[in-house]
Request: fold
Amino acid sequence: MPLAPGVGRPGVKYKLYYWPAIQGRGEFIRLALEDAGAAYEDVLRGPRGFSSQEKLLKNRSMSQIPFAPPFLVAGKEINLLGGAPSYADLSLFQMVAGLRYAFPVAFGRLEKRHPRIVGVHARAGARARLAAYLASPRRIPFNREGIFRCYPELDLPRKKSEKT
Reply:
């Protein structure tokens, strides 16, 4: 898969290693990279896929070999601190999106009581780079393989007054 568009940091090439068909824990990293405008490669979704990851994991010359995916290879870490939106905001965004998918009825009732959380989600999702990512084919749809799985039998039953 080609590098995602964005400005990133000059000279730093990010490579994300995570399962190619699920959002999972890797999505939290994708959201941070997308929102930062960093160019990155979602390696396992590319043509060399798992063979690239296997090669990396066998590379004994690295100072620290990753333990388990997701892992990010870069020149230096992204530091998201200060008054600007942070990794915590992006993580909360993903949690709300995932819970809306997994438990639409139960979470739909809960979110009415937590407008500040819903507000963080809305503001994060409206950020230009993040909105473009969410609308792109790079955003893996929620499915029954990831950490947020929708099983209607585990959700609350809908009241007659609730929309489907």
Remarks:
- The first helix runs from residue 26 to 36.
- The radius of gyration is 18 Å.
